[in-house]
Amino acid sequence: MTGEELDADARVELRTLPKELATKVARHLVMAGQLAEEDPEKAYKHARAARRLASRVGIVREAAGLAAYHAGEWAEALAELRAARRLSAGSDSYLPVMADCERGLGRPERALELVKSPEAANLDPMGRVELCIVESGVRRDLGQYGAAVVTLQIPELRDRRLRPWSARLFYAYADTLVEAGRGEEASDWFARAAAADRDGETDAAERYAELEGLHILDTEDADGGSATEEPGIVLETTDVDEATGGEPADEPVDDSADRPVDEDVDEPADEDPEEPVEKPSDAAPEIVAATAIEFKPAEHEGPDVSAEDAPEAPAVFLEPKRAEDEEPPSGS
Fold first, then answer.
1. Pairwise CA distance, residues 85 & 221, whole Å
2. Fewer CB within a 10 Å sphere, N or C end of the chain?
3. H or E stretch including 61?
4. Which residues pair with 78 in a beta bridge?
5. Sheet of 233-236: strands edge to edge?
6. Is the pTM of this model over 0.70?
7. Tell me: the pLDDT tens digits for 5-60?
8. How far apart are alpha carbons 319 and 325 in whole angstroms?
9. CA distance 9 to 254
10. Strand (E) or helix (H) holding 317
């Protein structure tokens, strides 16, 4: 770790420090960034070390604030980000995080003040979406579930093109629908979130399966390799026979061959042989694949994602094998 891994703009801010000190601070900032997801507590310690060395540098206070936020230290995160705004000529990019810190501290009214502040209009599309997600969470905290749903019904929610914020926005909307008691709609949006979440940042697939009463099967084979050429999530239902304690019921046995040939058996007459008689099926119910999402070029401005990033077949839930099929599907 040399410190050269730090973003170029951040290194520019550190030039106000002596070279040796700047290198040391940069190394702490790089470690804080790398550990933010896997070990937020350790990342927080690195950010605090950098702050002790260079408390008058805006990028250092920003890193300390974000690290404190990921570690759940709401009050310290709020103080550091306020300082970062002062040192960075009033940057508003931290506004969603600051509002969420107020929410974490149990101060929903203050959070809403930040959401409705004039500075919110200066946010880029990503920042505006994040701020809406925070506001929706605040409304839920206040028991305003209808308002929480409406807050997320923004144009970006209906954007048919995959955006950097799509997975988080779809997931937040689905989660809010659950809180509002609209489970059927929530299931559809969890499916959309799973289709958009290519990096597995959310548990949208698991939430969808939970709402639909399905099970997620591991597609890894016994040798640790993938059982299918392309990764996928397989969902299936499970038939349970209560009389056998959860074991599958035995197949009915045809004992007609063991009957005496002279046994007098009354066979039911076919009332209408031309009309097929429907028999109840014991097969597992068919699972309908999750709603596929067609991503198309957007008509409004905003950060773009190349066409290669748009999923060709965004439905990630595969239809399970029915009980009467002869051979199991590959990867199940």
1. 51
2. N
3. helix 58-70
4. none
5. 215-217, 233-236, 317-318
6. no
7. 887 888 888 988 999 998 999 999 999 989 988 999 999 999 999 999 999 999 99
8. 13
9. 78
10. strand 317-318
**Domains in the chain with CATH codes:** 1-90 (1.25.40)
In 3D space, the residue among 182, 188, 158, 175 whose CA is nearest the CA of residue 288 turns out to be: 188
Sign of CA dihedral 225, 230, 231, 237: negative
Concatenated DSSP letters of 277-288: PP----SPPPPP
Helices 58-70 & 19-35, crossing angle to 10 degrees? 20
Which residue has tokens 């501290």?
105
For the record, the structure tokens of 266 come out as: 């009354």
| Cα 152 versus chain centre, distance | 16
CA distance 115 to 99: 7
Q: What's the residue count for the chain?
A: 332
Rounded Cα gap, residues 312 and 292, in angstroms: 10
CB within 8 Å of 163: residues ≥ 6 apart: 125, 156, 298, 302, 303, 305
